[in-house]
Structures are given as structure tokens and as C-alpha cells.
Description:
Blueprint: H1 11-18, H2 26-39, H3 44-50, H4 57-68, H5 79-92, H6 96-100, H7 108-126, H8 133-154, E1 162-165, H9 176-181, E2 183-186, H10 188-192, H11 208-211, E3 217-218, E4 221-222, H12 231-239, H13 255-260
Antiparallel strand pairs: 1-2, 3-4
Helix pairs in contact: 3-4, 5-8, 8-12
This protein binds a DNA duplex through helix 4 and helix 7.
Domain HTH myb-type: 16-68, 69-123
Region (Disordered): 1-21
Subcellular location: Nucleus
Amino acid sequence: MSSLTKTSTSSSEDEAEQLRRGPWTLEEDSLLLHYINRHGEGRWNLLAKLAGLRRTGKSCRLRWLNYLKPDVKRGNLTPQEQFLILELHSKWGNRWSKIAQHLPGRTDNEIKNYWRTRVQKQARHLKIDANSVAFQNVVRCYWMPSLLQKMEAQTQNETWQHQVLMWPGEQNSDSEQSRDACVSIGNMSKVSEFAGYQTSPVSVSGNDTLASMDCYSYGNTSFYDVETINLAAAATALSEGIPNPVNDCHLVDNDWVNDGFADHGLRSMGEPWELRSFH
DNA sequence: AAGAACCCCAACCGCTGAGAG
DNA sequence: CCTCTCAGCGGTTGGGGTTCT
């Protein structure tokens, strides 16, 4: 990024010539903060001039909203926030500002960056379109449940009920592997309260296939419910080498995982692709 | 140790809609 | 209506830091 715009001849262009671009300095931040504290925000072009900033109004607005505003939250997104982003994006698509409205202190820019750098990256590694139904299923079937687990782990000390589903034959195992292999479901209504969802527990049948899935729901949507998952898309995904989450939870045994995730250090990034195989 | 590759994120750009004149 | 300005939104870029080879 250049620090100053190119030179020109007319007076309006002379003004443009003086406009700064690129990273903000401490002095500029201070000027902007000071001005907004005294006069409030809005009328950004005028504000930029009156504050003595050689910046466009646009630039000032962005700097304020994304960085200087006191309620802007810094730091990594929590599992709750990540879950909410995934869920709201599945509903609204790339409506970043709308999504941001539901994450206090987070900016649309931050959410957009999260989506592009984390979520779309996963899609790239899986060689599927991030906007495809197949990828949405992957998100719903693997990522979101894992985030829910993380959220549960955070709230384990609370009093609400927690239960763990075990695979058939794994109930008595105390190994780390079996604990990983099973999928925990807690009281999802508690977990999902923050997202404003009505939840209801999903009963798991004795069917081995069903029992090998983690199941939860919110609203009328039951994950892993055959009516919810687009089986055609899942079949397509399967034909493309992507495991059908309904029938295949042996992730670590699958080349998809080994090739796509492990090689890219995703586990070390703390991403939720951490289901273990079980035998 | 050094260069390459990758990743993150702040900031920019272009477009659109609302509102004023 | 039409034009202009402003605010806001989503897409994109590129600098700097980190990790990999």
C-alpha cells in the first residue's frame, strides 16, 4: 500500500494528493478518537476535515468501526462465536454486517476475514465449493458439533445436564480413543440459548448407523436426521471422495482426512476436525 | 540459517441505496 | 424525476508475521 496518493494538477486533485492511505499512525488514531469523543461520529467526510486528518471519510469510518470504537472486541473468536457465524452464514450467506449484528463487539470485517481464512480454507482443502450443499453438510455434520463440544467443555462446571453418547460396544471403555470416538451431546438447549434457538433433544435409535452419529437439534432441524441432510448432495460428496457423514464416521481412516486435514496442520490450528476413528 | 510458502487481517475499492436539494 | 453526497456493504489486496522446507 502506498502511503500517499499520486500527484496531480487540479485543486481537487491537489486535495486528493494530500490524502494519506495505508496503515494508520498513532497520531491519526489519537486525532480521530479525540474528535469523536468530543463531537460524536457521523458526517465522515466533514469529520475527516475538521479533525485535521488527511484521510477520506470512508477511511475514518472504517478505522473507527473496525479498530478504535471502544466496544470492539479483540482476540480470537470463541467457539460460541464461531458456531454462531457458521449457523448464521448458512441462513443468510455473505451478509457479514447482518451476521455481525448478532456478535456484539465483532465487526463485519472480522467475520468476513474469519470466513475467508478459516472456513473457505477448509473447503479448498476438501476441494469443494464453500457455498455448496456438500460443504454445508460437512460444516453441519463435523464442524458445528465439534464446536458444540468445545462449548460444552467450557460449561462443564455448570449444573446443566451433560450426557455422552457412546458407540455400541464402547460404553465400558475408558480409553482416550473411545472418548474421542464417541460424540458427546449435552443439553443443547442450554448450549444454543445464546443463539436464540429453540432446541429439542433428538432420540437416537438402536440402529447402528444412527447410533454412530452425533445427533442434536435446534428448531425443527435435527442434524443427521435423514430428512434434514440432503442425501443427494451427500451422495455427490461421497462420489467425490468426501465421506458421507451419515454413514461414515471413520474419519481418520479416510484419505480425505489424512490428505486434506492432517497435512495442513489443521488440528494444530485448533479446528474442529478432530474426530477419531474407532474399531 | 535462509528463502519460500503460507496465513492473517487491516485497509482499500467499487457498488448500491437512501436522502437531500 | 434527476443529480449529488454520504453511509454502508461485500469483495479484494497486500504487508507483515509465522511456519515450513
